[in-house]
Amino acid sequence: MPVIVGVGEINDRPENDADGLNSFDLMKAALEAADRDAGGGWLAKLDSLGVVAQLSFPNLGDVSGPLAAALGTAPRLCRQTPYPSGDSPILLLNEAANRIAAGEIEIAAIAGGEALRTAARRVKAHGTEASGDAVREAAARGARPLRQRYGIVAPVDVYPLYENACRAAWGQSLTQAQQETAQIWSRFSQVAANNPSAWLRRALSPDDILAPSQDNRPIAFPYTKLMVANASVNQGAGFIVTSFAKAKAIGVRDERLIFVGAGAAAREPGDILARDGYDRSPSMEIVLRRALTFNTISARDLDCVELYSCFPCIPKLARRALDWPVERPASVCGGLTFCGGPVGNYMSHATAAMVRRLRMEGRYGLLYANGGFATTNHAIVLSREPRNISMRDPDVQAEADALRGPIPMLLEDYAGPARIETYTVFYDRTGAATFGVVIGRTPNDARVICRISGVSTAANCSARSWQAQCPAPFSTCSGTRRARAKRSATVRSTKGSTSPQNTCPRAGSLTRSSTQAPSNFKP
Predict the structure, then answer these.
(1) How far apart are the first and last CA of the chain?
(2) What is each CA distance from 399 to 91, 286, 449, 499, in whole angstroms?
(3) The whole model's pTM is what?
(4) Alpha-carbon gap, residue 379 to 456, rounded angstroms
(5) Does residue 27 have a pLDDT over 60?
(6) Computed over its alpha carbons, how large is the radius of gyration of the chain?
């Protein structure tokens, strides 16, 4: 039976951010802390070391071998994930647990770290070592030209498309949907306020989450800064997994052991424009369902959960799949906005927090991870007591594929009527709307995409859109404009064009309605 015996985290906050540790040093420090938490002496005996790839310092390359050497160990299995993804820590945990259960290894360690704050400050100070926006640039390298043309490249560009489609599918008004987000995120902030390892430790009210302000500017409709992942951190986390027999032989006390159950994993199509829709995730649904059934429990048995929280649509979808009440916290560490741990390693922090929680109280905890653009899904159950279950291959892809609807044909060159499938509007750092993106369906149910340009700053300040008056830095807005939303409009998607002025010249009132998104709008 695989058990977690040690967890470690580090927050690096030097007086001068440019002097902070790099990602490698954060990983090393986190694993050393995990070794101390486990009683010491574990790292020298590692059979396996799994590392979550990092973005902050790309020149470091694959750090798994150098990290093992720096820790004074020589595991026979040593690897780094191909790229950073939100499901990476749970994938590595599941792999290690299965190998331990099969008798292939005895002791494994998993670690990751990101020093995006330090990297950005070094770029600003010296223009060396790392990108100023590593997340967006990494995403852009893998984005299809069509997505680049329409400006939906980074996660923050894509997840709002799910948010607005889900709101319509669930029959929510904008006010209702934003209130749900505010409740979930307010509880995240309360959890983080009581978590010594969280990056931001200030409890916020739902009103704090909702109100646009100088410190909570709009990012991508309907998300503000306090609703999205916080990348400006320097954090590392890791944990040590072994067999129950090995832990007992070394003398670890029973109350320190947290048992690792069976996991489940599946994914959505990698191309976001080749998905059946944006109001559900079949792979998420089946992963959460099977993670419970593989461990012979139901959602009612769960004492705590970690529902991945890069953007609100993901925990909203996950809690519906589990029937998890909005009144119960959906995180044990504080979510990506407040706990931190961005890009690929957040779930290592969640794992550490879950272990600490279960050591104190409860029986079962669920860790649900999401990566890419609502693409990869992995869930696993941890328990305080041993369970008589069989470890198994987590792959449930065939079941997820069976739940998926038909994929619509994508038309890259289309002009004519279209029904709005989903949309979003992007904002600059002053809070001014810059452009919008609409994904629609033609009368023949083909999918089209168009970019709405020339959006005015005033449209960004609609009281109906953001449920608030325009505070600084939006004081340049003189009044608000409102328009009736239309369920369909004439659109033009232009194949091969990169000019934002030539992407949707006929949108008319679609331009205004997609920008303002009044509370009664349902695509």
Answers:
(1) 49
(2) 19, 7, 30, 41
(3) 0.88
(4) 43
(5) yes
(6) 23
Higher pLDDT, 494 or 330: 330
Contact (Cβ atoms closer than 8 angstroms) between residue 82 and residue 53: yes
What CA–CA distance (Å, rounded) separates 221 from 232? 21
C-alpha to C-alpha distances, 310 to 155, 230, 446, nearest whole angstrom? 9, 9, 30
- State how far the Cα of 3 lies from the Cα of 383, in Å rounded to an integer: 9
**Rounded Cα gap, residues 268 and 284, in angstroms:** 9
SS3 201: coil
Query: Can you give the length of the chain in residues?
Result: 523
**Residue 96: its pLDDT value, please?**
98
Q: What token pair was written down for 327?
A: 């009144």
CA 113 – CA 29 distance, rounded (Å) = 10
Nearest Cα to Cα of residue 317 among 286, 292, 283, 281: 281
Helix (H) or strand (E) holding 238: strand 234-243
What value, to the nearest 5°, has the Cα angle with vertex 274 and ends 273 and 279? 75
SS3 for 263? strand
Q: How far apart are CA 340 and CA 33, in angstroms?
A: 18
The beta-strand segments (E) located in 324-476 are 364-371, 376-383, 414-427, 433-441, 447-452
